[in-house]
Amino acid sequence: MGGHTLLVLVLVSAALVVLSTAEEIGAVNSFKVIGRVYCDTCQCGYETNITTYITGAKVKLQCLDRINYRLKYEAEGETNENGEYVIYVKGDKGDDMCDVSLVSSSLDGCDKVDTGRDRSRVSLTGYNGLVDEIRHANAMGFMINEPLGSCTMVLKQYQDNADV
């Protein structure tokens, strides 16, 4: 009888371990938010084939409570030589509204925020069907003060392609 009781205890203990870890399957404990910051060299509101990417631009990630809009999490990032940034986030943010937004440009003559392309919402929870810890933010941009001379030709190419 003692051996039977021991076997039952071992099986119950194993079942409890499996059940306690089953809840965490698929849950991501940390995230990696990646994105790019560009200079809109033609002032057209989107990236073109002559868009440049900004080194040293600053961005921030903020997560707000969905009910009362209180700030619950904040982190900052800076772009590399390819205009790319990575922000590492600890913990699942659940239902919080998390946005990456532009802070500043390091490029003289291209430091006016492109309204409408100045932020990107990211989902930072493991309970949304996404299995990867990497979250991609949309590219965000600043406007150049004076469009490049080659923009007319570039925009004409886009117009010609739209007619096809």
Summarize it:
This protein has 164 residues and is of the alpha+beta class.
Explain the overall architecture.
By secondary structure, the chain is α+β, with helices and mostly antiparallel strands. It has a single domain (28-163), classed as Immunoglobulin-like, CATH 2.60.40. It has 2 helices and 10 strands. The protein has helices spanning 2-22, 151-163, and strands spanning 30-40, 52-53, 58-64, 71-78, 84-90, 97-104, 112-113, 119-122, 134-136, 140-143. The strands form 2 sheets. Strands 1, 2, 5, 7, 9 and 10 form a 6-stranded mixed sheet that branches. A 4-stranded antiparallel sheet has the order 4-3-6-8, with no helix packed on it. It is elongated. The model is unreliable at 18-26 (pLDDT under 50).
Task: Write out key terms for the chains shown.
single chain; 164 residues; 6-stranded mixed beta sheet; elongated; Immunoglobulin-like; 4-stranded antiparallel beta sheet
Question: What is the secondary structure topology, with strand pairs?
Answer:
Layout: H1 2-22, E1 30-40, E2 52-53, E3 58-64, E4 71-78, E5 84-90, E6 97-104, E7 112-113, E8 119-122, E9 134-136, E10 140-143, H2 151-163
Parallel strand pairs: 1-9, 1-10
Antiparallel strand pairs: 1-2, 1-5, 3-4, 3-6, 6-8, 7-10
Total domains, how many?
1
CATH architecture: Sandwich
Q: Which descriptor suits the 3D outline?
A: elongated
Q: What would you give as the CATH superfamily? A: Immunoglobulins
Percentage of β-strand residues: 25-35%
CATH class (first level) name? Mainly Beta
How far is the first residue's CA from the last residue's CA? 84 Å
Number of helices: 2
Radius of gyration (CA) equals: 24 Å
Secondary structure: helix percent: 10-25%
Order of helices and strands: HEEEEEEEEEEH
Unreliable sequence segments: 18-26
Q: Describe the biggest sheet?
A: 6 strands, mixed
Q: Quickly give the structural class.
A: alpha+beta
The chain-level mean pLDDT equals 87
In the CATH scheme, what's the topology name?
A: Immunoglobulin-like
